Amino acid sequence: MSNSKKSGSTKADIKNLEKKLGEVLGLERAAQKAVDELVAMKLLDSGDKDETKEIQDEANSHEEKLLEVVNQLANDEEIKINIETVNDTAKETEKKATKIMKTYLGENPDKSEGLEFLCLAEGGEVAHYEVLEVISKKFNNRKLRNTVRSILRQERGHLTICLDMAREAVS
Ligand SMILES: [Fe+2]
To answer: Which of 56, 81, 140, 147 is exposed most, by the fewest CB atoms within 10 A?
Structure first.
């Protein structure tokens, strides 16, 4: 415990961290809305609904955990991220993700398209958390690293579930 080394992060790393945290926050919010949308469009069977509800609940818990991390990082003397930058990025990302969904689903989507869109969304989340995990290792902040690692694990699980549902729908 003696050598409390300074983290090797630079200003650019902090900018990257703010951006990536904002992006995952926006994606988690969009994911929750996407499930509601797919249910409203009747694109999910009852079995799918149970699984997607679970994904939605976890997205909600990820959002809360991320907000905790963001608040903690804003108060971390060495890191001091800008909450406003994170929030602006989150809003922008949520808007973009919702637009992508509308474009992807179009006027009259079928069940496969709905489930494939969910795969796309979860794949996007996995990609962003993979990158955030690398960035998080540059900072001397255990809560950040642990939270990102545990969410990434669950996101990989979400992608697997969505892929299973998409395959099941046509078999
Ligand atoms: Fe997810």
So the answer is: 140
- Does this model's pTM top 0.90? My answer is yes
pLDDT digits (tens, 9 = 90+) for 16-64: 999 999 999 999 999 999 999 999 999 998 889 999 999 999 999 999 9
Kindly give the distance from the C-alpha atom of residue 169 to the centroid of ligand 1, in angstroms, as a whole number: 20
| SS3 track for the chain | CCCCCCCCCCHHHHHHHHHHHHHHHHHHHHHHHHHHHHHHCCCCCHHHHHHHHHHHHHHHHHHHHHHHHHHHHHCCCCCCCCHHHHHHHHHHHHHHHHHHHHHHHCCCCCHHHHHHHHHHHHHHHHHHHHHHHHHHCCCCCHHHHHHHHHHHHHHHHHHHHHHHHHHHHCC
The protein residues having their C-beta less than 5 angstroms from ligand 1 (an ion) are 122, 125, 155, 158
62-105 pLDDT tens trace: 999 999 999 999 999 999 999 999 999 999 999 999 999 999 99
Per CATH, the number for 11-169 is: 1.20.1260.10
Distance 29 CA to ligand 1 centre (A): 10
Q: How far is the CA of 8 from the centre of ligand 1 (A)?
A: 30
